[in-house]
Amino acid sequence: MLRWLHLQSCNISTFPAFLKSQESLEDLDLSNNKISGAVPNWVWKKSLQSLNLSNNKLEGKLPRSLANCTMLYAVNLGNNTLHDTFPLWLGKLPGLMVLILRANRFYGPIKHLENNFPKLDVLDIASNNFSGQLSIEFFQATHKLRSLKINGNNLEGKLPRSLANCKRLEVLDLGKNMIHDTFPYWLVKLPLLKVLILRSNRFYGSIKFFEDGNAFPMLHILDLAYNNFSGEVSVDFFQSLRGMMVIDGNKVKPSYVGDNYYYKDSVTIVNRGFEIFYQKILTLLTCLDLSNNNFHGRILEEVQDLKSLHVLNLSYNGLFGPIPSALGSLTELESLDLSRNSFSGKIPPQLTSLTFLAVLNLSYNQLDGRIPESNQFGTFSNDSYIGNPRLCGVPLTRKCNEVGSKMLPPKEDEDLWIDGLSVWKVVVMGYGCGLVIGFSIGYTVLNEFGNKWIAIFIQNWNQKRRRSK
């Protein structure tokens, strides 16, 4: 009798018939195939401990007979077309640690029962049609969660404060919902939190912290993009990101978040201008994305404390003032996006020390002067600087004047209009003077030449007349 069967990526389209007789099967993996339709009841063996049917074409409802598999600790049914409500009844499985239902057609509210899911470590129900509010009781029941992914649904309302009871939480992805709340500062109480994704919701207001201490000591990915956050990015905010202040020296043997044999965490973030899906999350990867909000004010020098940053995206906000030279201290930085703000002044030459910088976007600001040319700056294209009419130098076609290191000092719009008018006056006067002088010379030459021609013509006519007589 078989104890485990792995037939992943074998291009099979039906459940193997010989499974009917395998009553001792503990580990079944039929993922990444073309199996369609409903799951037959004879697949659910009471001996099953791990079940992976992900990335197939399964449809219909989850059979309640799955609850009879009381030995199960891992269930992965992701990326199918299953259509059902939240399987609350699975919460009665005493040893269930991993439940993955992502990318199906599950719908309705996420319900709860007391003492459900007592050992649940991973819950991934992303990319479904779940709706309603997250209940306080749900997180009280699932307080042992290490990874929670409910992104890509239709959840709304406020975040329940009971989420702070999940002291083991390392990954929290709430992105692409309709959650309407202020910044959940109380999440600083989660000592192990490494990844926090709140992007594409309806969070609003300024980001405030009401307690000191070792806030977010492990956090290395924070994505707040596409919300309605406002106000200044404060000193307290930068100082709270403790996990981004230390460079992990272990680059020879990198580790991953949730690195165990039954599950590896994944995440989607915007890096180098593209939305990238990471099947594994390197603990080395450090990302801060505050783009597409309503932040204003200056970037404070304290940003230089975030030594381990690889990705910094502050685009599409109302930030202004000079680009701080302190950014040159972020030596691990690979992607820097400050586009669509109101930054002014020169590009700090200190940024040329960012030798790992692969992507730079400073477009659509109010920068001026010469673009630095050394190190990585020699690799960036026009797109990095477009929308800054006062910038000059390579790679732009606008040349800086040969004497100085910048273009001639620009004036206000009104002065530029007057200057333009003055230039045209000079041009018109030049043309006018040219035309007057040209007509005068032409008239004089033609007049003298014409008089001589008429005199000769009359003289010749008189001579012919005399001969005819």
What does this structure look like?
The protein has a domain at 170-431: Leucine-rich repeat, LRR (right-handed beta-alpha superhelix) (Alpha-Beta Horseshoe), CATH 3.80.10. The chain has three helices and 30 strands. It has helices at residues 136-141, 235-240, 413-468; strands at 4-6, 27-29, 36-37, 50-52, 57-60, 74-76, 81-82, 98-100, 107-108, 122-124, 129-133, 147-149, 154-157, 171-173, 178-179, 195-197, 204-205, 221-223, 228-232, 267-271, 274-278, 287-289, 294-297, 311-313, 318-322, 335-337, 342-345, 359-361, 366-370, 390-392. The strands form five sheets. A 14-stranded parallel β-sheet has the order 1-2-4-6-8-10-12-14-16-18-22-24-26-28, with no helix packed on it. Strands 17-19-23-25-27-29-30 form a seven-stranded parallel β-sheet, with no helix packed on it. The chain is elongated, with a radius of gyration of 36 Å. The relative contact order is 0.05.
Task: Give the key terms.
alpha/beta, elongated, 14-stranded parallel β-sheet, Leucine-rich repeat, LRR (right-handed beta-alpha superhelix), disordered C terminus, 30 strands
Short description, anyone?
The protein is α/β, with parallel strands linked by helices and 469 residues long. 14% of the residues lie in helices and 22% in strands. The strands form 5 sheets. It has a 14-stranded parallel β-sheet, with no helix packed on it.
CATH class membership of the domain at 170-431: Alpha Beta
Secondary structure tally, helices = 3
**Which structural class best describes the helix and strand composition?**
alpha/beta
Average pLDDT score = 85
Trace the largest sheet across and list its strands.
Answer: 1-2-4-6-8-10-12-14-16-18-22-24-26-28
Which blocks of ≥5 consecutive residues have pLDDT under 50? 402-406, 408-458, 461-469
Largest sheet: 14 strands, parallel
What share of the residues does DSSP label as strand, in percent?
A: 15-25%
According to CATH, the homologous superfamily of the domain at 170-431 is Ribonuclease Inhibitor
Rounded Rg: 36 Å
- Based on Cα principal axes, name the global outline: elongated
Helix fraction bin: 10-25%
Oligomer: single chain
CATH architecture group name of the domain at 170-431:
Alpha-Beta Horseshoe
How many strand units?
30
CATH topology type of the domain at 170-431: Leucine-rich repeat, LRR (right-handed beta-alpha superhelix)
End-to-end separation? 146 Å
